[in-house]
Structures are given as C-alpha cells and as structure tokens.
C-alpha cells in the first residue's frame, strides 16, 4: 500500500496484492507530487500535509482521513480483494455467425458463436466506508432515477442510454474521492454495507481530495483529470434539433425561417440517417438528398449559424467505412463497432468523418450511441430490475471490451475525435455532443447529454437531480433533450420507428402526449422545459414523435410561442454572463450548473433541495415542475399560477422579473404564469447583459449593460476571446474586473487585461443599479 501527497489537499492511495505498478491511466493526467510538503511516520503508519492527515490501520489497510485540526473526514472500513480470471469473447477461429438486428437504438450485430476464453487475471473487490450519521453523498455521474443523495441507495456505474457513470463522489463533510478505474463499478450504501465495488482492476488506485468548499474539491478533480477545453462561443446559443431533418436544403430553410421571425439561433443539427440508404453508420452523405450540401452549408454559415452532424461508432457490414476498418483489423468482436482504444483506428475513423462530413461544411459532432452496447436492455415492455439491467448491459460491454475498460469506450472515442480534429483544423474548437462519457472527457470538448428521456413532468424533475450530480462529479458540460425525446405512448404500436421492425411497446417509450404539439398539455410542458433549459450549459431542443421548432407551438402573439421566444431571447441577453462562466470553467475550474451545496453549504435546508439550482454564483433557478394550465389531451386546469420556492439563507434575494426584494432563509410563494419562471438574483451580484443579439458572436451596437444588485459587496470578471480557436491557451483573451463596494455605493470597472485578434478596441457600458 502506498499513500502519496499530490497536492496539500490531494492524496493518492494505491493498494495491491502484488507489487504496485505505475501503469498509464486513461483518466488521470497528474499523479506527481506538486510541492506538497508532508511528514511520514512509518512506525505510526501516518502521513500528513498542511491540509490532510492519513492514519492507516496496518491490519486492514483502512485509512482514517482527517483534516488539519484532526477532525475525522472519512473512516474507511477496510479493503477486500480477490484475484479473478478475466474472460474475453472470441469465435475461436470459427466463421462468425452474425445476427443483424434493427433496434430502436440503431442496427446492431449479435454474434451467436462467441465463446468465453480466460485471457488474464485481475482483481475484484470492495473498498468499505463508515459514513457519518447524516452525511450526504453526491456525484457518481448521471443515472435516470432522479436520486440526489446516494445515502441508503445503490448506484450501478455502467454506460447505457440515459446513464453516464463517473468514478467519483463528494461528501457534504468536505471531501471527495476519485477512483482511477474504468471497469464496471457499484456504489452501495444499504444494510449490506457501505462500499464501492470494482469489477476488474489491476490494483485499487484512488485520490482523496479535500476542500474548504465544493468548488475546491471539484477543482481538485479537474486538476487530476485535466482542465476543460473551451467550447466555441456559439455552443452557448440556442441549438435547434429534432429527429430528424432529411436534407441540407431542409436545414437551411429552418434557419431562414428563424431569421425571418427574428428569433435568435446558433446551431441546427442533422440527426442520424444522413447516410446513403441502408448504410447505417456510414460517414458520408446520401448523394440524392445532400447533393447541394456545400452550397446549403454556406447559406447557413452566411446567416451566422453553425451545424452539427450525427455520427455513430457502429457501421453496417459492407459499407465503405466498415470495409476499410475491417480490412485494417480495427473492428471489435461484434464486427460492427470500431476499436476506439486503438490510435490507428481512431485516425482512420476521423479521416472518414472528415472526408465525408467535415469537408462538406459541418462544424461539430454529435457522437451518438457511444456506450457503445446497450442492446439487451433497450427493449421489452417492462423495465427490468436495476441489478438485472446492470448484469445484462455490463456483460454485453465485456463481450467486446476489456473488462478493465468497460466504461471507457466513449472517452476514447471523444479523445480520437478531438485530437485528430486539432491536428487537421487547429483553428477550430471541438464540440462533441455525446450520449456517454467519462472522467477527463471535458478536455476533449465533449458535451454530455442525458440520453433518450421521456417527455413528462416527472422526468423533467428527475433530470435536475441528475444534472446536479453530474456537476458534482466534476464534469462541467451537461445538457438534455428539452421537451423529452419520447412524447407518445399508445401511438407507438401504430407508427413503430423507421429504424425498428418490432412494433411492440417499449418500457422507455411511454409518453402521454400522443398528439404532440397539437396537445396543449405538451406545449405547456415544453415551454416550462425551455425555461429551465435556458439555464443549462447547453440550450438545446431535441426529440422524436413531434416537431420542435418554435412555429409549431403557435405564432407570434400566442401564449406558447411568445413564452418560448422570451426565453430564447433571455439566453442571448445573458450571453456575457454565460461566456464569462465558460471562461471560468477553463481558467478557474468553475462549475456552471450548481447544486445549492456549492454556495450555501451552511444552510441545512438548502442541502437537500434537488428542484432548484444556481446558474453561476448569481442566479437561483426555480423551474416550474407541474402543469398549471393543461393536462394531456388539452384538458384545462383551474388553479393558482404560483410556485413555492425556497430562498437559501446567508444572503438576500431579488426577483429577477420585478426586483422585489426578499430575505433569505425562507419559503415564499411567487407568481409563475406561463411566460414567467421564478428566477432570483443574489443580493450583491453583478450581471453583465446585452441587447438585441441574434447569435452568440454578434457584436451589439448597443452598450453592454452592467446590472448591479445591491445589498452586499460584489465582484465579477468579464471574459472575452475570439470564440473560435485555441489561441486562448497561449494567452489570447481579455478579462475585465467589475467590483461593487456596497458601503461606498461605488462600481469600479477595471482595466481590460490582455487582448486577442478581433477584439473591439472600445466598449460602452450602461450601469443599472437594482435596489
């Protein structure tokens, strides 16, 4: 067993049954000690820095982690590991017997004559914990059940549609643990014990991180796994998507309509099926529907809008892409999915995507289905038990991936796309919207989204907890399908799916809005979801079953249309605030979507709230999570249009909509008509805003507004760069400090520090004081 201080507040602990090996990690970037002064007492089995004291029990290997004053942060309960055989699946030289099946999640290969063969040995086991009474545990990535605090719960960590595991958790007692592990895992805190189970590891390798607050713990996670890359600025504007557009001309027409309606937009998305008919996963375009793609992409770019295109890791047998990778020996044993763990395979995959799509004018990637195996569970009318799903899907991963890397495919896929794009196009930032991911993916420009969720009020509420747990896993980029992906229920059996030949009901496709946008109940749900989505790291509408463009919800002057437009415009009003946060993600390891634990850790009531969140440090977001106007089938509701919200203690608050002032630490009931979601501004805040933007990169001819919300001292740092390339890595950016002193009633606008090509030489401000 070896314990090494990495920084004053970060210790690495390695435990092995054999000699400890420093093998290359897929997720950890920094292992070395960084000027961390420490004292070791071999006789007492202790080691300490200025921030952390580790006391080791020599009989069990359990570590008691303490802070500088000797207070216990976490008492481990011991380690138990056994050596197990790791099996791989092979046909043993036989000709593969392949069943090609059309599923809701694409066309898949199932190899009938695979056989298990023992390949090598690894370890399987548990690290036990003795959590304190009342301690809260968060993180572990994103699941689908809306569990916010994982105490008294089991969480299975495996890649699946609607599940993105992360190998770390945080505690409200001031610490977090990051496991250098890419195998399947299970977190358990039940009557059977509190532990993390590891399915296949060479050795137990983890990092104990302490912090004065959650921001410092998350910063420690990012220090270890790598700083986030900056996304292109347009990625923070409005993204219009749906399943699906069928031609480049259709995409251009949608953008033209947004511009004619004067509704801001920054990106339009081409979902799957852009390939030639019958060539699933081929990274080239159907020559009939996309013959004019370069011309249409230029039209879209001339309207200051960008594009995104869906690509898949699996390909139909016989397609040119599949043939090239097969002949090079770079396919996994399912004979459909390329080997993203092989650097040469990643280079070929990128070359195919570049030649077939990027060179035709697409700007960014939607790397779909990157788990990449979920077939056994993605069907059936009844949802299986959690442990059954874990075994089914986990076993499928281990058929084709090394057991020690069963959770890492999406990460390596993102790595290949990012590194190869940077080689070919060093002046264009990577944006990869991906359905699966893992720790360290933030440095590859990977924006995670929560998968094919159902359009319902219940799902919308659960997604808040899932997004907050992803943020508390140290991952800064997360979003969802605004409005839910699936909306219909009974109509499923009638219409089926263009990629699926099985018309039987599916457990995940059980919406209640069979009339889609013609159902006022769905229009209300979608509108409320748009309002919440306005305050996520990416603002993206997407789904199947019913269209999602704004004009499908009415016309200007009607209730749903006007409410949707209002919040799209608000997103652009807040663009200086949003992009400053994006800069802080890179420069300060900041978190945009914030649990109340980040900023109000001393408020016991705030600690358990999973239906509100902070958007940066200044805005409290209180989504409306129940219908107030219509049930499904357009059935009217008679009720008050109000919402009960909790305002955290330790500060006072302004209602963002009307400047009404409230003391913190109380519940208040506020109005919540359809066009108005409750949002509050923390007293002592500076909010930079702009008017009249149609796209994120636009230079407004109006002064930038600096909104000062009085009540306490405030500070904010504006961030600017060219929004397009990686020159910020070499210092090509500018910052401006804004400082408000409450006692003096004085705002100081600091000197703009730094510069970048294309920077506006002068800027005019309008200062607006609230309160």
Annotation keywords:
alpha+beta, 8-stranded parallel beta sheet, 40 strands, 21% helix
Helix and strand topology:
Elements: E1 2-7, E2 10-15, E3 39-41, E4 46-48, E5 52-56, E6 63-67, E7 72-90, E8 98-103, E9 106-111, E10 115-130, E11 137-142, E12 154-157, E13 164-171, E14 175-179, E15 185-190, E16 193-201, E17 204-210, H1 214-225, E18 238-240, H2 248-261, E19 267-270, H3 293-302, E20 306-311, H4 320-327, H5 343-356, E21 364-367, H6 386-400, H7 409-424, E22 432-434, E23 446-449, H8 457-471, E24 478-479, H9 492-495, H10 520-533, E25 539-541, H11 559-573, H12 575-588, E26 593-594, H13 596-599, H14 604-607, E27 613-615, E28 619-621, E29 642-647, E30 653-655, E31 661-662, E32 666-671, E33 679-682, E34 685-689, E35 704-709, E36 714-720, E37 733-741, E38 746-749, E39 753-755, E40 765-770
Parallel strand pairs: 18-19, 18-25, 19-20, 20-21, 21-22, 22-23, 23-24, 35-40
Antiparallel strand pairs: 1-2, 2-17, 3-4, 4-5, 5-6, 6-7, 7-10, 8-9, 10-16, 11-13, 12-15, 13-14, 14-17, 15-16, 26-27, 27-28, 28-33, 29-32, 30-31, 30-33, 34-35, 36-37, 37-38, 37-39
Helix pairs in contact: 2-3, 5-7, 10-11
**What is the percent of helical residues?**
10-25%
Stretches with pLDDT under 50, minimum 5 residues: 492-497
The count of helical stretches stands at 14
Question: How many β strands by DSSP?
Answer: 40
Could you tell me the strand content as a percent range? Answer: 25-35%
Provide mean pLDDT, rounded. 95
Report the C-alpha radius of gyration, rounded: 26 Å
Beginning-to-end CA distance, first to last residue: 58 Å
* Largest sheet composition: 9 strands, antiparallel
Protein structure class: alpha+beta
Overall body shape? globular
Q: How is the largest sheet built, in terms of strand order?
A: 3-4-5-6-7-10-16-15-12
């Amino acid at each position: 067993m070896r314990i090494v201080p990495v920084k004053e507040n970060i210790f690495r602990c390695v435990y092995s049954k054999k000699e400890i090996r420093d093998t290359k990690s897929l997720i950890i970037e920094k292992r070395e000690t960084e000027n961390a002064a420490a004292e070791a007492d071999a006789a007492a089995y202790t080691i300490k820095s200025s921030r952390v004291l580790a006391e080791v029990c020599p009989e069990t290997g359990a570590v008691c982690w303490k802070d500088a004053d000797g207070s216990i942060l976490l008492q481990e309960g011991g380690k138990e590991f056994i050596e197990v055989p790791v099996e791989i699946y092979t046909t043993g030289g036989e000709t593969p017997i392949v069943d090609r099946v059309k599923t809701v999640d694409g066309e898949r290969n199932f190899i009938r004559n695979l056989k298990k063969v023992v390949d090598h040995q690894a370890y399987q086991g548990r690290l036990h914990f003795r959590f304190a009474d009342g301690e809260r545990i968060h993180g572990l990535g994103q699941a689908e059940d809306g569990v916010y605090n994982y105490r008294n719960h089991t969480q299975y960590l495996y890649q699946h549609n609607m599940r993105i595991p992360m190998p770390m958790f945080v505690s409200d007692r001031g610490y977090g643990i990051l496991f250098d592990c890419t195998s399947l895992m299970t977190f358990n805190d039940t009557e059977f014990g509190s532990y993390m189970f590891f399915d296949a590891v060479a050795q137990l390798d983890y990092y104990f991180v302490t912090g004065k607050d959650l921001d410092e713990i998350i910063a420690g996670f990012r220090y270890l796994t790598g700083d986030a890359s900056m996304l292109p600025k347009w990625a923070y504007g409005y993204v219009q998507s749906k399943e699906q557009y069928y031609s480049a001309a259709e995409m251009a027409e949608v953008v033209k309509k947004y511009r004619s309606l004067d509704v801001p937009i920054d990106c339009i998305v081409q979902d799957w099926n852009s390939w030639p008919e019958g060539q699933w996963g081929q990274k080239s375009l159907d020559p009939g529907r996309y013959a004019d793609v370069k011309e249409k992409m230029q039209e879209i770019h001339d309207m200051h809008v960008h594009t995104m295109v869906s690509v898949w890791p699996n390909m139909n047998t016989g397609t040119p892409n599949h043939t090239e990778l097969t002949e090079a020996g770079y396919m996994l044993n399912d004979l459909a999915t390329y080997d993203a763990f092989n650097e040469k395979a990643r280079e070929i995959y990128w070359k195919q995507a570049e030649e077939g799509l990027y060179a035709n004018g697409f700007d960014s990637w939607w790397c779909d289905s990157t788990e990449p195996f979920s077939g056994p569970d993605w069907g059936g009318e009844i949802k299986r038990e959690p442990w059954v799903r874990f075994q089914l899907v986990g076993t499928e991963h281990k058929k084709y991936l090394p057991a020690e890397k069963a959770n890492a495919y999406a990460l390596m896929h993102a790595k290949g796309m990012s590194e190869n794009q940077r080689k070919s196009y060093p002046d264009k930032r990577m944006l990869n919207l991906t359905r699966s991911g893992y720790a360290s993916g933030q440095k590859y420009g990977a924006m995670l989204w929560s998968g094919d969720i159902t359009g319902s009020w219940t799902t919308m509420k659960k997604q808040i907890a899932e997004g907050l747990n992803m943020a508390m896993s140290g991952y800064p980029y997360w979003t969802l399908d605004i409005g839910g992906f699936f909306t219909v229920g009974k109509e499923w059996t009638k219409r089926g799916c263009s990629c699926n030949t099985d018309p039987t009901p599916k457990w995940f496709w059980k919406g209640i809005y069979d009339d889609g946008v013609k159902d006022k109940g769905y229009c209300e749900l979608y509108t409320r979801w748009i309002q919440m989505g306005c305050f996520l790291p990416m603002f993206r509408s997407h789904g199947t079953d019913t269209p999602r463009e704004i004009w499908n919800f009415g016309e200007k002057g009607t209730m749903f249309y006007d409410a949707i437009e209002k919040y799209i415009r608000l997103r652009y009003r807040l663009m200086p605030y949003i992009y400053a946060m994006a800069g802080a993600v890179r420069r300060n390891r900041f978190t945009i979507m914030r649990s109340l634990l980040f900023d109000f850790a001393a408020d016991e009531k705030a600690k358990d709230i999973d239906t509100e969140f902070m958007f940066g440090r200044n805005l409290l977001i209180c989504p409306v999570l129940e219908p107030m106007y219509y049930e499904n089938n357009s059935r009217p509701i008679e009720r008050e249009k109000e919402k009960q919200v909790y305002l955290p203690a330790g500060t006072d608050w302004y209602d963002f909509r009307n400047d009404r002032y409230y003391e913190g630490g109380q519940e208040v009931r506020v109005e919540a008509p359809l066009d108005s979601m409750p949002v509050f501004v923390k007293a002592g805040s500076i909010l930079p805003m702009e008017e009249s933007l149609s796209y994120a990169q636009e230079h407004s001819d109006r002064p930038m507004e600096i909104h000062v919300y009085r009540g306490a001292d405030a500070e904010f740092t504006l961030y600017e760069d060219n929004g397009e390339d990686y020159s910020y890595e070499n210092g090509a950016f500018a910052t401006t400090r804004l400082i408000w002193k409450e006692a003096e009633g004085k705002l100081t606008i600091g000197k703009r520090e730094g510069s970048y090509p294309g920077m506006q030489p002068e800027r005019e401000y309008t200062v607006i004081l609230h309160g």
